[in-house]
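User: My notes are a mess, but here's the protein and adenosine-5'-triphosphate's SMILES. Can you give me a structure?
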Amino acid sequence: MATVQLNHVEKVFPDGTRAVADFSLDVRDGEFLVLVGPSGCGKSTILRMLAGLEEPTGGEIRIGGETVNHRPPQKRNVAMVFQQYALYPHKTVRQNLAFPLRMMKMAKAERNKRVARVAETLGLTPWLDRRPKHLSGGQRQRVAMGRAMVRNPAVFLLDEPLSNLDAKLRVQVRAEIAQLQRRLRTTTIYVTHDQVEAMTLGDRVAVLLDGRLQQIGGGRELYDAPANVFVAGFLGSPGMNIFHTRLHGGEGDTLELEFGEQRLAVPEEAAARFGRVDALLERPLLAGLRPEAFSPAEDGARENGVRVRVAASEALGYENLVYFESPAPVFGQPAAGGEEHAAARMVARLPAAGPPSATGDSVVLTVDARRLVLFDREGKALSAKD
Ligand SMILES: Nc1ncnc2c1ncn2[C@@H]1O[C@H](COP(=O)(O)OP(=O)(O)OP(=O)(O)O)[C@@H](O)[C@H]1O
Ligand SMILES: [Mg+2]
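Assistant: No problem, the inputs look usable. Here's the predicted complex:
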């Protein structure tokens, strides 16, 4: 096992593309770190630099405490499962698994032992003599994993290993990978653009955009306290509702938040997170509310009830996603009433038990503002630490 460190790593390709910029990351020994971000943000480039397939154009990469910038792949003791992994079609599962060991010129007895052990770990023993063509997608994917594991690498690099699988299998193999990593405790860096995989797999999650690290932390931490509007919108499905707003002083020491024409009372526990609010009053800000911050208002007056018009709804069986016309200008969406665009929308995650809402319905929702997040106009989250 080994630690992995990237210090101010940069990658500019010969054509001038800056794929990775000033990227620093410390992965602990035995940690499962997930690197997540949209397509083209530099995830594969980072893994390829760790594997030794690309050289960084700046900064330093350390594995197990040693600088490896110029060290060839075979001298790094890392194993990578590629985004487009390919098994040898004419070799059996056993031969596919043994191949990396043959390349290392490992003695046959030891080779057989290793292959048997990895096959056992991954549940591949019954298929050792089959060719990949006669395996299911999930089994093939496990052979690709096995080929990386069989060398007992100090570091595992997995580049979207589940992208070839259908949705159901993905959930199953995802759970298997998590279990396996917990058992082996091999330092693992797992790349995905799927935020559900990111939230469920990693000890920590690093969010990347345009080659730059946006935030790193536990999944829950990133979900509850995103560092900026990108992380807020990226994690969660659907992402956080983000709208333009201002804070106003209410009665006594209370705070109120503009929600279009309406005002929401800001609970003390939320206000405490924003630091010195007096400096923020009346200034243009961005606010974020998760879809689950909304709930159906019960009969009778309730605090923070808002009346909204339903634009569309999706009944998912276990919950209803209700899209409604936003009372407040939504960040990054056209303003309501814009001629060529549909009105800006927000989304609420409501219990499936509730009555289904139809397009055009007017409904009253209660807003739980305890987990409200505020951002400055540049999109950086406000925090008491600033
Ligand atoms: N050899 C190359 N030459 C020039 N540009 C490259 C090269 N390889 C990658 N890039 C560019 O670098 C950026 C990052 O690419 P990378 O493959 O790391 O993205 P990614 O996050 O893995 O995306 P995806 O989720 O689609 O796999 C992209 O803009 C890509 O076009
Ligand atoms: Mg990639």
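The first strand starts at residue 4 and ends at 12.
User: Great, I'll file this with my notes.
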